[in-house]
Amino acid sequence: MALLEVDGLTVEFPGIRALDAVCFDIRPGEVHALVGENGAGKSTLLKVLGGVHRPSSGEVRLAGAAYRPRRPADALAAGIAVIYQEFNLYPDLTVAENVFSGREPCSPVSRGIRYAEINRRTSELFAVLGVGIDPAATVGELTVSEQQLVEICKALSVDGRIIVMDEPTAALSADEVGQLLDVVRRLREEGRSVVYVSHRLDEVFALADRVTVLRDGRHVRTCDIAETDPDRLVRDMVGRDVESVFHRDEVRGGDVVLELTGVSAGRRLRDLSLVVRAGEVVGVGGIAGAGQPELSQLIFGALAADAGTMTLNGAPFSPRNPGDAMARGIGFLHEDRKAAGNLPDLSIRHNLTISVLHRVRGAITRLLAPARETEVFDDYRRRLDVKATGPDQLIGQLSGGNQQKVLLGRALAPGGRLLLLNEPTRGVDIGAKAEIHRLINQLTADGAAVLMVSSDLPELLGVSDRVYVMAGGEIVAHLTGDDRTEENVVACATTGRRVFSEELSTR
Amino acid sequence: MIGAIKKAPLLAPLVLVMVVLAVSTDTFLTRGNLENVLVAAAILAVPGIAMTFCLAMGEFDLSIGSTVSLAGVACCSALIAGQPPAFSLLLALGVGALIGLANGVVITKLGVTPFIATLATMVIVRGASLAYTDGHDQIVSSPGLKYLVAGRPLGVPMPIVLAVVVTALAWWTINRTRFGRWVCAIGSNRDAARMSGLPVDRIRIAVYVLVGLSGGLWGLLISSQLQKGNGQLGLGFELDAITVVVLGGTALLGGRASIVGTVLGAVMIETIRNGLNLLNTPPAYQRISVGLLLIAALALLALRRRERRGAPRVLESAA
Fold first, then answer.
1. Is B306 at the interface with chain A, CB within 8 A?
2. Do A326 and A434 reside in the same domain of the chain?
3. CA gap A44, A19 in Å, rounded
């Protein structure tokens, strides 16, 4: 009955047991969701299936026979395709070259790749998925969601019986998520099994036939999706009750902190006007690539404005670089922790204080004072509830949620009255997510202004007091009060609908 | 003790090499010979330390060998032209700093990758040095210049004094100053450093100026030893400077720096060179040995990294 059986699987790394006697099975033609907080062992399990890690004990059986991949190629040969969160694609090669990489059909005489054949076969595979991507396009020029589809296409090209997806929607916008879910359903109709790892429970309930919950490397339970509900699943994942994830205190917007009037910048941003007040969380939504991160970079001085004016606390503001913006008290969180957040070789203490080193120097010696640095760190560690063994731990050793808290601390450290937060809870587990939201509440209650870019719709609507929606580098909607609905955000971002609600007056 | 070995992994092989040399030669352990080794190591350690900053930042500078030559030539020409020694020494340091500044500006403002930019500077500066001297030696006899290598304040050879001072300053800079932290942050993740508001380009330029300056000092020390300057000075020195840093355990891709490691790396290289001399090995083999050392050091680093990442232990489960 079961296509893949995981039996007593244990994986040990020096010092930790990442997986502890995990047992579950995957049936043919099912979508099997795998959920758990960061650090629950999902990634390790995926890497065992993908032939990257080997189990310390226990066994995986594929169609009744022992499955012991020694390298990733073994997994592919066995029909198990793992699509990791970080894609394994060559950005400079074409879609078809990527799909058939390492298995290119060659002409026997010239040894040249048969482009006509790989392009045709790639097109056929995309047709199965119901998407139209040009096989001759360069992968680096595709959007993240299209690259995701290329990875899926690669999995199909080896005729993967089991396709494993790790957080496939983490970087996708709402409508792209819908498209991906359709693709997964098609895979199921084809009779393939899909292991679907996601933090987003709405996707899990929309898609999965069965769900397996892991916590702290252990198997908690596997059940039909009909036998559970989101609250129950969350309790299984965290092992305790979590307070309502989105809880926003009533706020009263104060003075205008930031105002943009007709600002254009770079190749994308055109004629942006917006206002952020003290004590407010202002959300920025839209499909990926509509210019939301660029907007925050513009305000942070990482992108130069070509036209229009910006004011900060009423005074003209035109930062030339992030240092300028920080000197004016602006904190910034980048949407990509790995690419532009973490300093992997530095300890978490040093990661946190890197932008405020002038504050931890001795007055006369001008040397860094480790004691003061530790003070600053301890302060933020308490406020943000960072779980770490000590200030000298490397940031890469923390879970995603705790890494994010350290980076939030870095954004807060300049003492900002204005925070630019890009995807503050991306790739963060539910517990840490709630804590980060609580912290945003607390900061705004203390009078800080927050501009939050989020592609997570429930978060965007639940945490923000007002929402701007962007499309094609322009602001296409301003939603307040009852206009703040998922439908409005999605419709404005993807169709011609425009909504500009009045700001709630009598502030 | 174990902690010390972990922090300076070069200590054990260094002791091993010394023991081997002490046993296999009569002369290695003599006072004069040991002093020779230490003076040579001190001369190499100074530019090595500057290069440590560069590698900790995730970049490197190939032009330092040519800088040695042009700085030496500048100093000697000035002395021959009758300039006072103090001016001549400063001129050489200025030449070095300028070359560093040029590297830094080309790399940060014009966006040329460090490998290509410093490779180009390397041939340009070498060419300038050869053109200026027209291929001839510029022989000087200056007690002021001589003092840099032969002077013995408090009985300690001057290069060792210099190296100790530079080592202490560099250690403080890396571990206790904002600049040092910034250098490591840039080496660790340049985009994150930029997004944290660090003046990334200014720091990078500063490090190249530092390397250029150390190249100028190195040129002075070499000219002081030889009492001459010419277009051939410092050929292949860039490899020496980078090798001692890598031997010392500073990550080639940046993010971490080991000043003490670099100093030990310099002692290691000069000990091996000295040993090969004492064992009457031809100079060609010394070059081969440096190359082999570099590969060995990098292979060792890679192995240690793999170990740290920790592939899980494989227990053969009963089939």
1. no
2. yes
3. 7
- A223, part of any domain: yes
A236-293: per-residue pLDDT in tens? 877 765 554 566 766 666 889 999 999 999 878 889 999 999 999 999 998 777 889 8
Tens digits of residue pLDDT in B122-177: 999 999 999 999 888 999 888 888 899 888 898 899 999 999 999 999 999 999 99
**Phi and psi (nearest 5°) for A341?**
-125, -70
Which helix (H) or strand (E) segment holds residue A68: the answer is: none
* Alpha carbons B21 and B277: distance in angstroms, whole number: 11
Which domain CATH number covers A282?
3.40.50.300
B179 in contact with chain A, both atoms CB, cutoff 8 A: no
Instruction: Return left, alpha or beta for A324; rule: phi > 0 is left, psi -120 to 50 is alpha, else beta.
Output: alpha
Residue B107's H or E segment, with its range, is helix B85-109
**Number of domains into which chain A is organized:** 2
The domains found in chain B, sorted by start residue, are 31-302 (1.10.3470)
Residues A284, A193 within the same domain: no
A314 touches chain B (CB under 8 A): no
Residues A329 and A283 in one domain: yes
Contacting residues of B for A361, CB less than 8 Å apart: 178
Share of chain A above pLDDT 70, in %: 95
- Can you say how many angstroms the Cα of residue A70 is from the centroid of all Cα atoms in its chain? 30
Neighbours of A337 (CB within 10 A): 20
The reply to whether A223 touches chain B by the CB within 8 Å rule is: no
B252 pLDDT more than 90: no
Those of residues 192-221 in B touching chain A at CB distance below 8 A are 192-199
A293: domain range? Answer: 256-343+396-404+413-500
Q: Does one domain contain both A79 and A134?
A: yes
Closest-approach residue (CA) in chain B for A303: B195
Q: In 3-state terms, what secondary structure has residue A265?
A: strand
Q: What is the pLDDT of residue A154?
A: 87
> B182 to chain A: which residues are within 8 Å by CB?
354, 357
Residues A233 and A297 in one domain: no
Same domain, A214 and A275: no
Partner A contacted by B316 (CB < 8 A) = no
In a domain, A205, yes or no: yes
Residues of chain A with pLDDT under 50: 244, 505-507
Query: What residue ranges in B182-290 does DSSP mark as E strands?
Result: 228-229
User: 3-state DSSP call for residue A451?
Assistant: strand
